[in-house]
Design a protein that fits this description.
It is built from 3 helices and no strands. It has 59 residues and is mainly alpha-helical.
Length: 59
């Protein structure tokens, strides 16, 4: 069994947390950000993980 999410939607190149949801959530939480999987595919590609972007994306 693996802890890797094979369907991780993150497009950030070379991310060491790619597919590891626990590490990703912890990392972005420490930065006061949201994870890429919370955004639409279009918004995720901006790499802006802010609350402001999340709200804009969900309008």
């Amino acid at each position: 069994m693996t802890d890797r999410n094979e369907t991780c939607p993150c497009t950030y190149p070379g991310c060491p947390r790619h597919g590891n949801c626990r590490e990703c959530i912890a990392y972005h939480r420490r930065l006061g950000e949201f994870t890429g999987c919370m955004f639409s595919p279009e918004a995720e590609k901006t790499w802006d993980r802010s609350f402001k972007k999340l709200v804009e994306d969900r309008k």
